[in-house]
Amino acid sequence: MTETYLHIRNLGVNYGETAALQDISLDLATGGRLAVIGESGSGKSTLAMAIAGLLPKSAQPEGSIDFPGFPHRPRLGKDIGVLFQDPSGSLDPVTRVGDQIAEVIMTHQGSGWISARVRAVELLDRVRIPNALSRLNSYPHEFSGGQKQRIALAAALAGNPSLLIADEPTSALDTVVQRHIVNLLDELVRESGLTLLFVTHDIALASERADQIAVLYQGRLVETGVATEVLGQPGHPYTKALIGTHISLDTPRRKRLAEIDMSQLQ
Amino acid sequence: MTESSVALPVLEVKDLAKRFGDRGAAGLKEVSFSVSSGETLAVVGASGSGKTTLARLIMRLANPDAGSIHLHGRDITALHGEPLRRLRPTFQMVFQDPLAAFNPRASVRRILEDPLRIHALAAKDDYDTVIAAALDRVGLSAALMQRLPLELSGGQRQRIAIARAILTKPDLIVLDEPVSALDVSVRAQILNLLLDLQDETGVAYLFISHDLAVVRAFADRIVVMEEGRIVESGTTDQVLAAPQAKATRVLIEAVPRLSH
Lengths: 266, 260
Hints:
Helices cover 36% and strands 24% of the residues of chain A. Chain A is an alpha/beta fold. In chain A, the strands form 2 sheets. Chain A has a 6-stranded mixed beta sheet with strand order 5-6-7-3-8-9, with helices on both faces. In chain A, strands 2-1-4 form a 3-stranded antiparallel beta sheet, covered by helices on one side.
């Protein structure tokens, strides 16, 4: 029997009068890979941040988020690693990358400075930063966008978390770099037996990697289930529309592209 | 056949080259292609392949080290100042992030009025009518005229950018990743709008992208760039059915597949 890692019941998040999320109930199994799919304003990032415990002070949450395997609320950095869309936002621009990763290790593993730096090199190696040892003293701006995201991933994994939350980690990258990062993420998640929550607007990307899918639309969970079932037999018109408007390599040239008819969704 | 009956390509680029940095690192090398009226040429490649440098050179925002750029047969490679300014209306650009391309404190009306005033395209009394018509053409209400860019959605902003580009009735629009920052539901609407405008006006598009799925749905021909060079070119169908260059195959493999 699979163990439940995350148990969400009737979660809502309000900002004043505005409801960013309403009545979300969702379970994520330990070792599971959940893709949260939605567009701008769907509440997908709000959901991820609520789980990470990173909601801003102005947010008014309701409902419950439980982690049955933990006697306490899981700690950010140690139990939960977070990867954001913009790696420049998660890396400190004036701190050497080796120090940033080592700091996480020292804080959460209680290691000394030298062993933390050794471990930082291992992590940079694992995320395939070439010549990791010689790059420890480099600053984030000395790396490309894709490399920065790899470094952010190394930092997210530095505390040995059991859950990785990735919030649109490849949306700012080109398709080739996206492919490399997604493959790397997949490999590391499988190797380490991590539970993964992956936020994306790309239903195809979700279909490749997730075993479970949750579709958010205007702050509500409109559909959730096993990935192959949700994609094979979508129940909600919005999920159907997302699949119908997907542009693939087989989409014929010079035909008008399918658009989502919002009036059909209400 | 008289000379005037030969249709010149809207854009012709020959042996374009640009070096960067002290060591002369290649930005672009020997890039040649042409785009005809009513045609869409996609320039595809990964980050750092030189796509954006190419766009900047064509838009005359930077100077090439070698090679030539012709618009309708006219050499614009070294054009500067007033002659270049007079030619600006004929070639326009739409950026990935229109927010970065707009003055954040200018209203939609002001953004669309600028090209009319700068290029004397309409009488002052007609600005409102012309702007309202342009907004209507891109599917927006004239009620948005007083809004600031930050008060608009990403899709609305890109429609404004397209409205600004078509106001000058250009022969060529360089589209630099115009839909990669947009939601999927908005992406198709913007691409359809661009396809419709091309049908109506015969405008040529240079479509810069790293997403081959979108390119397949949108472009007639493709050039694939890698490290500043064109490594493959042909019709979209040809290139995607039988890719020759490794860079092309890498781009094709990178497209997420919807499995269900």
